[in-house]
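Risk mitigation, structural track. In case the binding assays with L-homoserine fail to produce interpretable data, a predicted complex structure has been prepared as a fallback.
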Amino acid sequence: MSINKKISVMVPATSANMGSGFDSIGVALDLWNELTVVSGNFSFNIQGEGEQELPKDESNLVYLGVKSVYDLIGESVPSLTFLCNNKIPFSRGMGSSSAAIVSGLMAGNYISNSKLTDEKIFELAANIEGHADNVAPAIYGGCSIGINDEKNGWIIDKVKIKSKLNAIIFVPDMTLNTDESRMSLHSEISRTDAVFNIGRAALLVNSLSSGNYDLLRFATQDKLHQRQRSKTYRAMPYIIEAAIRGGAYCSYLSGSGSSIIALSDKREYTIGYEMAETARTFGINGKTMVVPISDSGARVKV
Ligand code: HSE
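Fallback model:
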């Protein structure tokens, strides 16, 4: 099947875990990758983040997303040219992989005229990723919760955030690989640690929706992954502390890192400065970004 017009898909950056919501809760950020697909010889033209590192063949996650749709409908992928304008920091725990998968799925859905629902696209994306904490906010926007029920599959819901919050993101120059980072996590946890996180994840959802943001500092505390990951990322707890000292409501490791995020509605540049200065004392350089939480998720632009 050939396509006569350009199709563009916009997908937001996402920050998974939010501290206590390990593998389950994530938030969309107002920072977007744009994928444009046109009919033509197979090629990938990647501009911006990841342009040196990302594969330009069929192993690219964008292509995997497109192919997943065509596999579902039992057809082969037509010859397509992919143009990726990437703003989401690559391999820094800000959902660049999920954005690639979701953009490919949405482009594939559109050009194949499959009319898959967002729910189906979410299911395909979550099955590729294995957890929903990036793909749910990438598709639905805002703060999304995703769980996998043994009988009913993926179930998602969106938290109504009371009022505008900005994310202050410290993006280190160094990368952390999600698979390697997960290997440092314990396969079993104590009841005490489970209770620690259950209460805080519940508090996280409630404080976001009530607007009682002073509770976020406690609500984003975690015992399931951050402490283990800080063994190889020693600066992390200090950068988190620096953000709180600078006036943030909360701060946590974004996804599996390396980015660290703080949430606030004031003093954003002071908070970013404190985070970057603390990182620098550990020999870690990087950039600081301030972006609002995005209530919108991925969309096709025709
Ligand atoms: N929740 C994942 C992790 C990252 O912490 O390894 C994003 O899915």
